[in-house]
Amino acid sequence: MKKICISELKNHVGESVTLYGWLYNKRSSGKLRFLILRDGTGYLQCVTFKNSVSPEVFEFTDKLTQESSFEVTGTIREEARATGGVEMDVADLKIISHAGEYPITPKEHGVEFLMDHRHLWVRSSKQVAILKIRHRIVKAIRDFFDERGFTLFDAPILTPAACEGTSTLFETPYFDLGNAYLTQSGQLYAEAGAMALGKVYTFGPTFRAEKSKTRRHLTEFWMVEPEVAFNDLNDNMDLAEEFLEYIVQSVLADRQEELKILERDVKFLEAVKRPLPRITYDAAVEILHKNGVEFEYGNDLGAADETIISNQFDRPVMVHRYPSEVKAFYMKRDPENPKLALAVDVLAPEGYGEIIGGSQREDNLDLLLERIKEHNLPEEAFSWYLDLRRYGSVPHAGFGLGLERTVSWICGLDHVRETIPFARMIYRNTP
Ligand code: 4AD
Ligand code: MG
């Protein structure tokens, strides 16, 4: 017999079905017991009337504890007031496993307690909603690139050198070959892919030994990185804005119920339509000065600065042409002003800050070699990367979108720790 889940019950009104799940909650009133069953696809109120079931089953409903797993059979009835539009009139019920006293109760728990119990916390309705939205975002990311002729190009996780600067590398011994490092970004490999396949994207876990203890830093996070041959900075910004619109509109189309559970004000999301505003770093600094911030021209933008800048706009803003000194070695300099890099960061609204970082890449061999030396990077480790400039170098550009920051923003959360099943941060590597 095919197993039916709660999300499919609308098509089974009037039928007798058997469902499997866990007890989310219950209440009683006289001869009635209301059991809320959850099975990961939804919630169902199972109404048990004393006269409709055997005495054993009725007695049993009183013993059923929160998170006990059980099997329940009954008739599905339309009920406009119920979340899924249906309820069950219970005929029979069997326990699968009795749960001991469940540590997470409807009372307020501190966030550290919840993070210590993350393996159980993921069962609660808000966490389920976040993880479903995360999944929808991942699907939108894949669909977007797949529909546009990109090829998925998986980058290695164990790498011989830094991509985004040496200060945030996780190191691990690697047999007789010295040390390997957990990748900070798949970009350099994606560039090799773009020279082979034209348009590629990498999508996988990336690692930063960040000392930052903020609401937007993880040590392990997922990044998607498109890389396109013959694209310049403007093409890169065109791609980024189309991409963001696509992701947000996909979530709005398919995850209204989850956004409601999270009490997300969707008017901020509905505004995410092309064109997105584009401002230069210089214009961004002007905004800061106009707002009374003592910001020294030439510095990188901090989180507080990003909030002030993004508050000027109702949708994500693209800030381009940063001082090359604060940006990565591989970024091409602006031919109009070599002090600036052809870089772009996309800042999400409502104080969420940078969600995308990208650039046009340095495609000239000699200039790239100079940058590698300036940044004190081990030239030998980059010899393969330099080959990309030796054999048919072309202008190209790409960017990286941080998945968890994007989920945090779309869900309207306070912290990225809730956007991934098991967060890794400086002070946490369990459960
Ligand atoms: O700006 P980043 O460091 O750029 C790169 O890694 C480039 N190689 C990408 C490229 O051009 N292909 O990181 C890109 C994005 C950030 O905008 C942010 O969303 C996310 O990755 N990110 C983090 N997310 C969570 N925790 C961290 N510690 C993060 N560091 C970066
Ligand atoms: Mg960045």
Bound molecules: 4-amino-1,4-dioxobutan-2-aminium adenosine-5'-monophosphate, magnesium ion
* Number of separate helices: 13
Q: Strand pairing plus helix content: what structural class? A: alpha+beta
Q: Going by CATH, what is the homologous superfamily of the largest domain?
A: Bira Bifunctional Protein, Domain 2
CATH topology tier name of the largest domain: BirA Bifunctional Protein, domain 2
Average pLDDT taken over every residue: 96
CATH classification class of the largest domain: Alpha Beta
Number of domains: 2
Low-confidence stretches: none
Strand line-up across the major sheet: 6-10-11-18-17-16-13-12
Q: Report on the biggest sheet.
A: 8 strands, mixed
Description of the molecule:
The chain is α+β, with helices and mostly antiparallel strands and 431 residues long. It folds into two domains: 6-97, Nucleic acid-binding proteins (OB fold (Dihydrolipoamide Acetyltransferase, E2P), Beta Barrel), CATH 2.40.50.140; 118-418, 2-Layer Sandwich (BirA Bifunctional Protein, domain 2), CATH 3.30.930. The chain has 13 helices and 18 strands. It has an eight-stranded mixed sheet. Strands 1-2-3-5-4 form a five-stranded mixed barrel. Strand 16 (343-348) and strand 17 (353-360) form a beta hairpin. The chain starts with 15 loop residues before the first strand and ends in a 20-residue tail after the last helix. The relative contact order is 0.11. Magnesium ion (MG) binds at residues 345, 354, 357.
